[in-house]
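cron nightly-structures :: item 1 of 1
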Amino acid sequence: MSHHEEILVIKHGALGDVIIATAMFAAIRGHHPLARIVCLTTKPYAELLSQSPYFDEIWVDSKPRITQRKALKRLKKRLNSVKWDFVYDVQTSQRSTSYWWLFKRPRPFFSGIAKFASHRYKDKARHGRHALDNYRRQLQIAGIDHVGLPDLRWLNAEVRGLVPDVTYVLIVAGGAAHRPEKRWPAEQYAALASELAAKKLVPVLIGGKAEANALQMIADRVPQAINLCGNTTIAQLAVLARSAFMAVGNDTGPMHVIAASRCPSVVLFSGASNPKKSAPPGEHVHCIQRTSLQDLSVDEVLTVIHGLRPLDTTP
């Protein structure tokens, strides 16, 4: 591949999707080792992706509305400021698909679901597949045959002072505030944390403002727990995950970060989402699903944890 290649990758979000897409980013970089690769993303993920080994430059997309004509004109001008050899639409949303029309003729080679894309992924069954499977199929059409697993082992941050020198389990008890049905009850997490603490495994609580009350309740009931609510960046979470005994959490973005850091993980799914389509991939990940997470017992979770990493064995 020529070092004169100019490659654009489009990926807006969300967190879990971005983490899974790192497998695709790695494959694209491997296929274009000497190219200049630019990622068009949104502000929440610009810093994260700027640390990755996959991109030479990060552009932030403000995602202008169709009524914001000046902003759309600026976006079009920027997209056409480079003569792209290939554009990979990893987002494949209605918005990112519409960007095909913003490129001037002759348009670059384009991988995505746009109707007139040169390398169109048009399988109607894609909506029922896992995101990683779709990425692999999409890239095969573009001539890239190998896509591995998401891997965040390149992500680093300072974590001294967050967790003492103990054996710990990451607990991710939160999730999107508007999707409470995707959360295992905080009382159950507290009971699980108590069982782990009794086995000399320190529960480390991960989350943000949306789950602050739940995490504080767990911390109050389990004195051994370390509450890091609001105190970890994505990069710090990845570093903590690499040293954790394991992790347990709801179907939420931070669990993708943890799993992509190759931490043994148990992810809890309600009927509101489908692990076959959105679970963190890898043999080190085990998913438990119940129509209602209210029906999932602590003993069931402990059994799965013990199957991944025996709780009576020092790691």
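cron nightly-structures :: done
The chain has a mean pLDDT of 95.
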